[in-house]
Design a protein that fits this description.
single chain; alpha+beta; two-stranded antiparallel sheet; 3-stranded antiparallel β-sheet
């Protein structure tokens, strides 16, 4: 599934020119998932089948039925030395946020998601792993 997401996105940007988005002091490459129709379709299907059920179990007082969940904004990032390797520390504007690692960690150096509030500040994932968190974290 991770490779399918990558393949759809790479096909969409087959000319090699990714959209640019300012992120504080940095510029990152990527796109809103809603703008890549085949990716949006796959992403929503996978979220409904896999992630929303987990979210509803983690937050039963908030989510009564996983079919009530939807994505307000989702962005697919491409981090490269040329196009941006990180974002500024920030909080998202939603109720919940999540990060999914699409590539195998052996494909790149560094990486991880930084959390100021954790003793071991950087969480590194394996391909396909997800971090759920309140967006204000």
């Amino acid at each position: 599934e991770c490779q399918e997401i990558i393949d759809i996105t790479e096909t969409y940007f087959s000319d090699g020119v990714w959209s640019k988005l300012p992120s504080g002091r940095f510029t990152i490459s990527g796109s809103w998932i809603k703008d890549i129709i085949p990716l949006r379709t796959l992403f929503n299907t996978l979220l409904q089948k896999k992630l929303f059920s987990i979210i509803s179990k983690l937050y039963p007082d908030i989510v009564l039925d996983s079919s009530d969940l939807s994505i307000q904004s989702a962005y697919i990032f491409k981090y490269t030395p040329e196009s941006g390797e990180k974002t500024d520390m920030h909080m998202d504007s939603s109720l919940l946020s999540f990060t999914i690692l699409l590539n195998d960690p052996s494909d790149f150096e560094g990486g991880g998601t930084y959390f100021e509030c954790l003793e071991d500040n950087i969480i590194s994932l394996s391909r396909g792993q997800v971090i759920f968190r309140p967006a204000t974290l």
